[in-house]
Amino acid sequence: MVGYQFKWPKLQPLAYCWVALLLWLMAIAPAQASVLLRIAIENQVSQVKVGSSTRAIVRDSSGRTLGELPGMTAYMANSSGSGVALHNWQANQIYIQPTGDGYVFIGDRWYRGGISLVRTDGGLTAVNNVNLEHYLYSVIGAEMSPNWPLEALKAQAVAARSYALYQRERGGNPTYDLGDTQGWQVYKGLESEATSTYAAVDATAGQVMVCNGKIIEAFFHSSSGGHTENVEEVWTEARPYLRGVPDYDRGAPVYEWSTSVSVSQLSNLISGVGNIVSMQPEKTTKTGRVITMKVIGDSGQRAIDGEQIQRLLGLKSTRFSIQKANGIFQVYGKGFGHGVGMSQWGAHNLARSGANYQQMLYHYYQNASLAKLQVE
């Protein structure tokens, strides 16, 4: 497909000064551990727009050079038969690497690193191949406000680095290591980077949490509502480093919350019992997080997972109770997220009270310790 010019996000005339500053920061940034991550940006789509800010080299899976893409020109990549079609080229996989200090464009955002275009069973997957530390520059700003205390951002950097490497080692996906959504870690490329995220990542470069000599799966969440969870109560497998501990998230905007739903709305959402009369917790964690709820209606009853109710009602967590009054079900809840591992609002408040990032990590990841990543 012939390339075409278009208005690139984040690179409008008023933003060129920002780009110049970013390039300067990239140039003076300290050398980072050379761990490469593969992040799925667009997964199993029919086509995706790609490009580079500078001249880019295009190669196939054997490393053979197919040609070059000019800078600041967008191209549409398509799934084609058993391979990928881009511009005048077709191959089973296509790799795009910008020259100099360039960065790449995938879908609707700019990213550091390069691009892999891979044909999968469901279509085309566009993967951002990016240095681990550069990836974290973006993740920290997407998962926490860059305006939060630096010690909290450092704790997030170590947790996110540990989580990413755990997934890289055990994910088992031949195409990518992680996705870019909340189900993994939120990754938005250049747009969520900030001077504070550079500082947090650089100050903790290569640091991970380990338990029994292995990098931990460092889950984190926004707020637990006062106490985090033992992982096996929320999911299945017990982990010595994911134990429930007192949280320090009081005062967070999601510490407590409430909502309401009418009988008719709730009865339409939960089928098989007629008009719902009451909802009673059947199994909960020690902190009151709902594992299963008994739903009683005028024509039957059934047990339903707490996570399913959370999805149906759009609740912030499964730590909730439901009471019926005047034909309305009132929902009262605490926290935001699954409640396992580090609480981000807890880290925020601990930082405000003077704690350092090491203290936060040792509190939320019991039986784990800090270690320095060794890269050959």
UniProtKB/TrEMBL annotation:
InterPro entries: Bact_Sporulation_Assoc, SpoIID/LytB, SpoIID/LytB_N
Sporulation stage II protein D amidase enhancer LytB N-terminal domain location: 121-210
Signal peptide per UniProt: none
Cellular-component GO terms for this entry: outer membrane-bounded periplasmic space
Pfam families, alphabetized: SpoIID
One GO BP: sporulation resulting in formation of a cellular spore
Regions annotated as coiled coil: none
Protein name per the record: SpoIID/LytB domain-containing protein
Source organism: Planktothricoides raciborskii GIHE-MW2
